[in-house]
From TrEMBL:
This is Poly-beta-1,6-N-acetyl-D-glucosamine biosynthesis protein PgaD. Keywords: Membrane, Transmembrane, Transmembrane helix. The lineage of its organism: Bacteria, Bacillati, Bacillota, Bacilli, Lactobacillales. The chain crosses the membrane at residues 34-54, 74-99. It comes from the Bacteria.
Amino acid sequence: MRARRSKKSDSPVNGYIHDAFFEKGHWFLKTRQVLMTILSWVIMIIPIYWTISITLGSKHWKGQPFSIPEGKDLFYFFTKFFAYAFVILAIITIGFTLYNNWYTKYHVKRHAIYDEKRLLARREAIKDFYTSKFGERYYRRNNVRYYVVTPENNLEIKSIDKIYSKFEATKL
C-alpha cells in the first residue's frame, strides 16, 4: 500500500492565504506591478539626484536653478530647518520613551490596574464556556490542528460580554 503524499493544495492554510502575484500565471498583474514599482523609484530618485547634483556637484553656477543667491539661501534654510526639526523630534521621542519606561517600571508593575477577583471570575467563565462549546482543553490543544467553524458554532454578537456579566453577578 502506498502512502498518500500530501499536496500543497491539501493544506487548510491555503484557504486563508491568497496572493495572485506569487501564484503561477497572472503575467499581466506581475508586469504591471513591477513596472509601477520601477516607475515609483524613478519618480523618487530623480528629484533627489537633481537637487544634489545641482547644489553640491556643480562648480558652474551660471544657468543653474541655484545660480541666484535666493535659491542657495532657500536651500540652506531648508537644510537648517530640517536638521533642527530632526534634533527636536529626536529629543522629544527619546524623552517620551524614557518617561514611558519609568512609568511602566515604577507605576504599572507596582500597582494593580485591574480587579483580581473580576479577572479570575472572567477566566473561569470563559473556560467553562469554551469547554461546553468546543470540548475539553486538552483535546483542543493537543489533538486539533485546524478547526473550521460551522455557521451554527459561530458566536453571537456580545456573547462573551453576556457570559462575563452573568458569571460576575454570581461569583462576586
